[in-house]
Amino acid sequence: MDDLRRFCQLLPKIELHAHLNGCIRTSTFRQLLSSTADQLRLDALDKEFQSGDTHARMANVFEKFALLRSCVTNLDEIRRITRETLEDFITDHIIYVELRTRPRSFDNGAIPMSSYVEAILETMKQYENQICSRLILSIDRTQTVDQAMETLKLAERYRPNVVGLDLSGDPNVKSFEHFLPVFNLAKQMNLSTTIHIGELPDAECLRENDLILDFKPSRLGHFNFRTNEQEQRVIKEQIPLEICPTSNLLTMKLANLTEHHFNLFHTRRHPLAICTDDSGLMDCCLSSEIYDLVQSFRITKEEICELMLQTCNLIFDKNQIDFCQTKLKEFLTNI
Ligand code: IMP
Ligand code: ZN
């Protein structure tokens, strides 16, 4: 292994954009798919993905998410996915993670959403000596306002381990406006927010970007497609960005990482977090994401350390900033 790759691996890291079920190991996903038809569908989706444009690729990814959702049917499976995700993150030297997930119930409501959240939080607790993990609850773009309100109530109930509220799901559904009252309420309750923004190259998406920027969330996810004005506004207002290179590369269909907007913001010293999005489904890990950026943009080790230190300021659990920065500084003095 070359020296730089090893450095990226050993560097204590902060992961701020990871969808719990998207982190599922491929082997676990395959095991949970009970029917041969579902296995074949997964193979077909993997093949079809290669030939599509951004819209088709996004549709493909969301069909995969639907398949995944249909094969996760109980709390033991959620505990297993949480456990394996945390173990993979610990192996990758992640010291602080904010996992995000859309709460769900099982058995037609007999197992309520609160049990889903508790199962994840209990599993996180078992690993607290090895990794500091917090939870963000996701509202899905296809949900109703009532359902979103229920998610907000759950977030409030499980504070301080739940640290924020996210908007994610199929970006073809432009529903941020619809959820604005819920996000405004979250803000009034001092709950941090992160919103997926600019995921598709279409006019409706660009219009929705403005509404999201008017709301001014605590952090933004992706921001792949945007107008010049929107870009300037984010820079001027210093709204932190969660950048997920592999995920963006695949869905934006970029030729290579040098076309990614990371450098545009990095060179302006914009607050950034490098993240994985869906490490299982996208087959990536945080060290390789950092390594690939370092290689593509010829970033020095010093710059990466500086970037990681400023990422610590973006975490939602402000009580952990000191812990994260101290760990990083310890690592730096020992290399
Ligand atoms: P979960 O919330 O733990 O079930 O994680 C999987 C879910 O995260 C998917 O069903 C999507 O709704 C959401 N998700 C994962 N990646 C993306 C993305 O790139 N854009 C929008 N939503 C995403
Ligand atoms: Zn995401």
UniProtKB/TrEMBL annotation:
<keyword id="KW-0378">Hydrolase</keyword>
<dbReference type="Pfam" id="PF00962">
    <property type="entry name" value="A_deaminase"/>
</dbReference>
<dbReference type="InterPro" id="IPR001365">
    <property type="entry name" value="A_deaminase_dom"/>
</dbReference>
<dbReference type="GO" id="GO:0046872">
    <property type="term" value="F:metal ion binding"/>
</dbReference>
<feature type="domain" description="Adenosine deaminase">
    <location>
        <begin position="12"/>
        <end position="311"/>
    </location>
</feature>
<dbReference type="GO" id="GO:0046103">
    <property type="term" value="P:inosine biosynthetic process"/>
</dbReference>
<dbReference type="GO" id="GO:0004000">
    <property type="term" value="F:adenosine deaminase activity"/>
</dbReference>
<keyword id="KW-0546">Nucleotide metabolism</keyword>
<dbReference type="GO" id="GO:0006154">
    <property type="term" value="P:adenosine catabolic process"/>
</dbReference>
<keyword id="KW-0479">Metal-binding</keyword>
<dbReference type="InterPro" id="IPR006330">
    <property type="entry name" value="Ado/ade_deaminase"/>
</dbReference>
<dbReference type="InterPro" id="IPR032466">
    <property type="entry name" value="Metal_Hydrolase"/>
</dbReference>
<keyword id="KW-0862">Zinc</keyword>
<dbReference type="GO" id="GO:0009117">
    <property type="term" value="P:nucleotide metabolic process"/>
</dbReference>
<protein>
    <recommendedName>
        <fullName>Adenosine deaminase domain-containing protein</fullName>
    </recommendedName>
</protein>
<comment type="similarity">
    <text>Belongs to the metallo-dependent hydrolases superfamily. Adenosine and AMP deaminases family.</text>
</comment>
